[in-house]
Structure formats: C-alpha cells, structure tokens
Design a protein that fits this description.
Elements lengths: L1 H18 L9 E4 L2 E4 L10 E10 L3 E10 L2 E8 L27 E22 L2 E20 L5 E21 L4 E8 L3 E10 L1
Antiparallel strand pairs: 1-2, 3-4, 3-10, 4-5, 5-6, 6-7, 7-8, 8-9, 9-10
C-alpha cells in the first residue's frame, strides 16, 4: 500500500509540473529602456546545475547507490541495488533428486528467491517553491535479475533452480534541504532502490 501511495504522489507531482506554464520559470525579467522589471511571479524552478549521489537500502535488494546530474528543473540518474546482498550457500546439483529449471520443484522443496541485481534509470523533476526545501519526483525504468533456489523444507539445504529477468517502470519521491550555498541534503524513496539519503553539490 505504501508503494502504491508513493507512486500516486510521484505521478501527481509530475503531472502538475508539466501543466505549470513557462511564465513561472525563474529569472524572468526584461528591460524597458532604462527600467528593469523583475517578474514577481513565484519561482517554481531554479536554474540550477548540480551533481548528486544517493545511498539507500531496499529490502529485497540490499544496499543501493545512485548518481545523477541536474540542470534547471530536470535531472538524469543511474542507480544500482543488490550488489551488496548476500545469498545463502547452495549447491549446483542435488544427489537426492533431479531439479530442472523447466520443471516444477519436487515434493518437499520450495522456491527461495533473492534479488541479484537491479539497475535503474530515472528522469527527475524539481519544484523549488517551499524554501528552504526542494521537492523532487522521478519516473524511470528498471531491469532486475532474480536468483531462485530450491530449498528443502525439512533440512533447509538449497540447490540452484533458475533465474529470471524482469523490467518495468520505477518511481521516486523525496525532498532536499538547502544546507548551504553549495550543498543540499535530502531523503527520498524509490520503488526499486528503497529509502535513500542524498547529498547534492550545486552551482548556479
């Protein structure tokens, strides 16, 4: 339920950003002879250039990392999770029963699934309206590989069964706090990288 709520909020924010007219972009001003007029419309997007890094934890995938760049109101980020996730010891073959990837498991065995690696790519959008906080949301794509072991219900012994790949859409939502002129710190949640902390270095 929490995941669906995060996805709904992220989609709603992305749609609201798309619908905001360009007149509210920052730094809008014009010269009328010797008079400079500064637009008094609230600043929704700051023309910011920054780099950022994430570190987080995703239950099925373990530790996650992300790195990205932002220009103006949008960003691109690449993420990875699962590389620090440990998988229990297992054997490739069983001397007791025959286990084949294309066939159901024998009686007395159950599937034991572990996320091996998850790669994500996300397009993020930022709303600079609640100074000193900056709200961000992202939508992207993920590719995931899972390992499935055959676990003996009685003994707990594990054997290699199969692996499979999945892919689909991913979403994220979070907020940065403007800590200083060049640094921001933030927290967020990503559907495939879990809860994460973010550090941003930026310049205008």
């Amino acid at each position: 339920m929490t995941k669906n709520f995060i996805v709904s909020i992220a989609i709603a924010m992305l749609l609201s950003i798309v619908q905001i007219p360009q007149l509210v972009f920052a730094d809008d001003q014009f010269d009328d002879e010797n008079v400079t007029y500064a637009n008094t419309v609230p600043v929704f997007f700051a023309k910011e250039k920054s780099v950022f890094g994430d570190i987080g934890y995703f239950g099925p995938g373990g530790l996650s990392l992300g790195v990205g760049v932002r220009y103006w109101f949008a960003s691109l980020e690449l993420g990875l999770s699962g590389f620090a996730k440990s998988i229990p010891n297992y054997s490739m073959y069983s001397s007791e029963v025959q286990i084949y990837p294309t066939q159901p498991l024998p009686n007395g065995y159950e599937e034991d699934k572990y996320s091996k690696i998850i790669v994500t790519g996300d397009l993020g959008f930022y709303l600079d309206r609640l100074d000193p906080f900056i709200i961000f949301a992202s939508v992207g794509f993920y590719s995931q590989q899972d390992s499935i072991l055959a676990k003996n219900i009685e003994t707990g012994d594990r054997y290699y069964y199969k692996y499979y790949n999945t892919s689909g859409a991913s979403f994220g939502l979070g907020a940065n706090y403007v800590y200083s002129d060049q640094f921001q710190i933030g927290l967020g949640y990503h559907t495939k990288r879990g809860v994460f902390a973010r550090v941003t270095y930026y310049w205008f």
